[in-house]
Write a structure and sequence with these properties.
The chain has 282 residues and is of the alpha+beta class. It has a domain of 134 residues. Helices cover 20% and strands 26% of the residues. The protein has 5 helices and 12 strands. The longest helix is centred in the C-terminal third of the chain and has 23 residues. The protein starts with 17 loop residues before the first helix and ends in an 8-residue tail after the last helix.
Length: 282
């Protein structure tokens, strides 16, 4: 976050007012400038719950029906877990992607080289990964998702979706808040949320949105919480939105990509990977 921000006293976004700049300067002086780890992650409830549980970062949780704020970040994401279903805490994905084009190994830099049945692979077939293996412009091992069988429709356990789960990572800055809330849109809500965003007549970081939840059911009758997004007709002025883009959108996108794409020219070993754990799913 920049040390000096433009001030918009007439803005409905507190983070852009003098009060917001003062708080940002205090945080920076305290050595707590913008960092992804400082953002509050809001999890979608399970079993069809219709209220968000928002942690204020200091141990207090509030149940709210709607998340309301500026959509400062919207990022594509995809994850392939070693065993299909809800990932247990501490489980390391086999592959992750931040652009839905190329995926990178997380449980191992080149998971297709592991033997079948390896604990890091679960029920993933390394031969299937190898068929999609390639290298990026920096020479890093990656996987072409267009050739990855687990990205094909019908490869999920129930045959009605993809084994590799497509998601969206949203950053919602409350109008009266200083930092965005981060939430992951799960496959059951991706289509509807993406449709709303694709039809915006302005940049997404100009959009003031409301995110609610409704109880829905899969074709086999399993209840889940579906995200419902609505957009207020009046966008944030472009000049103000440009500041929000610099403050939040760009660093969030950079952080997500950095969490997916390994540094170039790094020679990983099994010992290195043993020290790495993915505790958070974006």
């Amino acid at each position: 976050m920049a040390n000096e921000l433009m001030v918009f006293e007439d803005s409905k976004v507190v983070a852009l007012t003098a009060e917001g700049q003062e708080l940002a300067e205090v945080r920076a002086e305290n050595g707590e400038d913008f960092d992804m780890s400082s953002l509050v992650r809001v999890r979608t409830p399970s079993s069809g719950g219709t209220k968000w549980e928002v942690d204020d970062g200091i141990g207090n949780t509030e149940s709210v029906e709607t998340l309301h704020g500026v959509l400062v970040a919207c990022h594509k994401y995809s994850v392939l877990w070693p065993t299909e279903g809800d990932a247990q805490e501490g489980t390391i994905p086999v592959l992750v992607s931040s652009d839905l084009r190329y995926a990178y190994g997380k449980s191992h830099p080149s998971p297709h080289t592991l033997p079948p049945g390896h604990e890091a692979l679960g029920d993933i077939d390394p031969a299937e990964l190898a068929a999609a293996g390639t290298v990026d412009d920096a020479g890093r091992t990656c996987y072409d998702m267009a050739k990855l069988s687990y990205c094909q429709w019908g490869t999920s356990r129930n045959g009605r979706g993809c084994r590799m789960k497509e998601q969206r990572v949203l950053g919602v800055l409350p109008l009266d808040g200083m930092m965005p809330l981060i939430l992951t849109v799960q496959p059951g809500s991706v289509k509807d949320v993406s449709r709303v965003i694709s039809r915006l007549p302005f940049f997404h970081y100009q959009a003031v949105v409301r995110l609610g939840l409704e109880k829905a059911k899969t074709p086999d009758g399993t209840a889940y919480s579906k995200i419902v997004m609505t957009v207020e007709p009046e966008p944030i002025p472009r000049e103000q939105a440009a500041v929000l883009k610099s403050m939040f959108r760009e660093p969030i996108h950079d952080a997500i990509r950095a969490s997916v794409v390994p540094p170039a020219e790094v020679d990983y070993t099994d010992a290195d990977m043993a020290d790495e754990h993915v505790d958070e799913e974006y």
